[in-house]
Design goal:
Layout lengths: L2 H7 L4 H13 L1 E3 H7 L4 H13 L3 E4 L5 E4 L2 H34 L12 E6 L2 H12 L3 E6 L15 H13 L3 E7 H6 L1 H8 L4 H4 E6 L7 E4 L3 E8 L2 E12 L1 H17 L1 E3 L1 H7 L2
Helix pairs in contact: 2-4, 3-4, 6-7, 9-12
Amino acid sequence: MDKRRLLRELGLTKYETDAYLNILERGMVEASTINKEAKIPFGKIYETLNMLASKGLIDVQNTRPKKYKAKKPELAFDNLFKDKKEDMENDLQKTRETITQIREEITKIHTKQPKEKIFWTTAVGDEVGELIRSNFEEAEKEICILIYYKHQQTPKHQFEGEKLSIMNEVIKAIMRGVKVKALLSRDFKLQHMNVLKKFNTIEKTLKTIEIRIVDDPPPAHFMIIDSEKVVLRVDDPTDLNKILAIIKIWDVKLAKKLKDKFDEIWNESEPFELTQHTNSTE
């Protein structure tokens, strides 16, 4: 492998890399030699050597002139790793403290109520999986979902790479007390029983997730988040097994309208006992 590239990835500058490799090859060397052979400007040579010493890669003999010798690589790079780890932990702690402070300051800002009551955003292509995940991440109280699967005869693989992170956010939402109510078509239930089994592995999910089955749901797929946001799915007209886009709308009136429709269907649907069905399929 390219040792120069690796040293640069460890944080050494070009001059530091050239000087360090020259010292390694020479065994013991003076600054004037490094200046000539590594082609490091004389005005930069001592600054470069001091940085290598501070990083624990070389030893310095304080004679006139000074001489430089590389430390054993095993020891030198172990120490470099420890120093970097300590620096990163310190930086992370400072970041935590800064975030705590900025949160406190931000909450003091009075946000004006916008004249427009509706706000929306869309996700297309690779952005869809991220938006689906974020819906569960930001939920605080309740998520109502209606899933219509009349056309989709096979499980989706469109967001295979996102499935784990989406599932994790669903479980996190449930674990922090977000109530989830899902209206599923019977076709969806049959095709995704393995997914439902995963929820049954966490006892607390049984207290906060409710599922009901509907035989003839309206041809729509929507989500209502905290009675204020609505998420609509747009299927690809050329392939109904794929999602073309997701539209997320901040609109309390629309959320209420869809929630009323959701509740109407919910009251007429068939309760689905998660524990009973998952245990019976094992």
